[in-house]
Amino acid sequence: MSESTRDEGCLFCRIVAGQVPSEKVYEDGELYAFKDVNPKAAVHVLIVPKRHYADVAELAAADPQLLGRMVLKAQDIADQAFHGAYRLIFNTGRDAGQSVFHVHAHVLTGEVMDE
Ligand code: AMP
Ligand code: ZN
């Protein structure tokens, strides 16, 4: 991958590259999905674009179609895990709880959740 698409210091770039182990749930040419190490629901999957974008707004501006594909992949995961019901979270900014600055969708599913 070229310099512009991969950030060497980025944990999720390293996971996508296979340099850090992960429990893979799904992979294609553009997306990678893996289990969160600290699950907040019965099923907690992170979906990331293979290409590095810092957050969801950066991705939306650069490639809205890929953001749409991430949403549809979340739907697929929830269709299989829990009759299509899920919570989809993009923490954006440190003060909102974002700790990894490679855009990721948290897919929380697999159980009935409080409102
Ligand atoms: P956020 O706080 O929204 O940036 O989410 C980062 C998420 O990455 C957290 O839910 C962490 O539990 C998760 N996480 C951190 N390191 C790893 C890892 N090596 N493999 C899987 N998930 C991770
Ligand atoms: Zn990255």
From TrEMBL:
<protein>
    <submittedName>
        <fullName>Histidine triad nucleotide-binding protein</fullName>
    </submittedName>
</protein>
<dbReference type="InterPro" id="IPR011146">
    <property type="entry name" value="HIT-like"/>
</dbReference>
<dbReference type="InterPro" id="IPR036265">
    <property type="entry name" value="HIT-like_sf"/>
</dbReference>
<dbReference type="InterPro" id="IPR001310">
    <property type="entry name" value="Histidine_triad_HIT"/>
</dbReference>
<feature type="active site" description="Tele-AMP-histidine intermediate">
    <location>
        <position position="104"/>
    </location>
</feature>
<feature type="short sequence motif" description="Histidine triad motif">
    <location>
        <begin position="102"/>
        <end position="106"/>
    </location>
</feature>
<feature type="domain" description="HIT">
    <location>
        <begin position="11"/>
        <end position="115"/>
    </location>
</feature>
<dbReference type="GO" id="GO:0003824">
    <property type="term" value="F:catalytic activity"/>
</dbReference>
<dbReference type="Pfam" id="PF11969">
    <property type="entry name" value="DcpS_C"/>
</dbReference>
